[in-house]
Write a structure and sequence with these properties.
With about 475 residues, the chain is mostly beta strands. The protein has one domain: Beta Barrel (Porin), CATH 2.40.160. Helix content is about 5%, strand content about 55%. It has an 18-stranded antiparallel barrel. The protein is globular, with a radius of gyration of 22 Å.
Length: about 475
């Protein structure tokens, strides 16, 4: 009954998000002048493929559209080419069998188990008048033959609606996930979460941190952000972003948290490729079942460089002041600490190959395990476009969390977590493909931690998957 109630709440959230999308589309249609028709759409090439869509020839006259995301905004910079005026939907379906060396994520001895997973989803893009709506959805089920490992449900939804006027643009973004594990390095559904071509792209601080392995159990993460871009001149703009994020654990006693976020920034475009920005970000982190609060203030100077369709690089650095308040046995304890913050990322595309790297150093909520942490998180991917709908690649990630204050554990507990994997796709025609993948996860700590019935200072897990995928080309509607 409890699980049905949880799933019912998630379904209602998803229904509400689709309702918002439908309303946005209706408004967009109403704003389109009478008698105006969309330009004919050329022969379809996936808007998410790299050089497969825009040509391998560097001198090709057809350039992908430039990304308009501001450097000081809530979203990470994009390469360009994803933001398109085409109206389409693109469905997909995946079936995987997975061998899992530690299906229950036990810290003690573990044995191999198997998973069978089904997932499906779609990407939708609708552009009309001054409104541009994008939606990416993935849903799936994971069934295990190990009675000690609960089955899992996967729901992931990204919605972005950008409304543009002459000197102002308003962007509404919502990112929701309902996963059976932490999201960083999630190993379900064939080793990696099937990537949607449409994502919100929300940056650091705007999404809950889940960079510590904490055992299996459903968790709900939701982030909502509204961004207002005000264009002062052709080179300058003011950016205001605000929203909230929620992280809730359904099946264990991890720390539920919520976060209020606000950001103000000033952008100056030095040239067609280079931009600088000054920004201030506030985070107010609160915990549902622990008397701790964190108020975090960060001031940063940022630099970004974009070469449309080829390169997107950004870096932001500056001081960060965190104020902690904790109540233990009726006694309030306050402290203030000063740190440095760094957010950097790069994406590079050459012909059919794409590379991405990111690194952050900041104060985080503690991933449900620590009530506040200094987090270092790095990740990287290298992918190759095998066809217009399938990619192969490698991925890796590392996180280090140093606890600031926790309930029942020393304040100096540290977690280090590594994951890495590879995926190989072999297309069978334009829409079918065979996928093989492997992933390894490893976590250690300076003190014993508990995931399941035993305690240990380390955990290791291997996943080997084989699957059949059906990924349709974009379809006009």
């Amino acid at each position: 009954m409890r699980m049905r109630s949880q799933y019912g709440r998630v379904i209602r959230l998803i229904q509400a998000a689709f309702g918002i999308l439908a309303l946005s589309v209706s408004v967009a249609k109403a704003q389109q002048p009478e008698g105006q028709s969309s330009a004919p759409i050329p022969a379809y090439h996936s808007p998410f493929a790299s050089a497969a869509d825009y040509g391998d020839d560097e001198n090709n006259a057809q350039e992908p559209p430039a990304s308009t995301r501001p450097l000081a905004g809530a979203r990470n910079l994009a390469l360009g080419g994803f933001e398109t005026s085409r109206t389409f939907w693109q469905p997909r379906f995946d079936l995987f069998a997975t061998g899992d060396s530690n299906a229950a994520q036990r810290t003690g001895p573990a044995s191999w188990g198997t998973w069978t997973s089904f997932s499906g989803g779609t990407d939708v893009h609708y552009a009309s008048g001054n409104s541009d709506v994008s939606l990416g959805y993935t849903g799936g089920l994971m069934y295990s033959n190990d009675a000690s490992s609960p089955n899992g449900v996967v729901q992931k939804l990204d919605v972005v609606d950008k409304i543009s006027f002459r000197r102002v643009a308003v962007t509404l973004m919502d990112q929701l996930s309902y996963l059976p594990e932490q999201s960083f390095g999630f190993g379900g559904l064939g080793g990696v979460l099937p990537s949607s071509g449409i994502t919100t792209g929300l940056g650091t601080g705007f999404v809950p941190d889940q960079s510590i392995l904490a055992g299996r159990g459903q968790n709900l993460s939701n982030s909502y952000v509204t961004e207002l871009d005000t264009y002062l001149t052709g080179r300058t703009s003011l950016i205001f972003s605000g929203g909230y994020s929620v992280l809730r654990y359904m099946d264990n006693s991890l720390q539920n948290s919520w976060d209020v976020i606000g950001r103000a920034g000033y952008n100056y475009q030095i040239s067609s490729k280079n931009t600088i920005a000054v920004l201030y970000t506030y985070q107010g982190i609160r915990y549902a079942n622990f008397q701790q609060s964190v108020d975090d203030h960060a001031a940063q100077i940022s630099f970004g460089r974009r070469v449309t369709g080829r390169l997107a690089f950004q870096i932001a650095a500056g001081p960060e002041v965190s104020m902690f308040q904790r109540s233990l046995s009726g006694t309030a304890m306050n402290s203030t600490s000063i740190h440095w913050s760094l957010h950097t990322g790069a994406q590079y595309r050459v012909k059919r190959n794409q590379f991405a790297l990111s690194y952050i150093h900041t104060v985080s909520s503690g991933s449900g395990v620590l009530a506040g942490a200094i987090a270092d998180i790095a990740s990287g991917t290298a992918t190759r476009q095998m066809s217009r709908t399938f990619t192969s690649g490698i991925t890796a990630g590392y996180s280090h969390n140093n606890g600031l204050s926790t309930s029942g554990t020393p304040i100096n507990q540290r977690y280090s977590y590594w994951y890495g994997g590879a995926t190989l796709s072999h297309p069978w025609g334009p829409v079918l493909g065979l996928t093989l993948s492997y992933q390894v996860q490893y976590q250690d700590s300076n003190l014993p931690f508990s995931i399941g019935p035993t305690k240990s200072t380390s955990l290791v897990r291997h996943l080997i998957s084989v699957g059949l995928s059906w990924h349709q080309r974009p379809l006009r509607f």
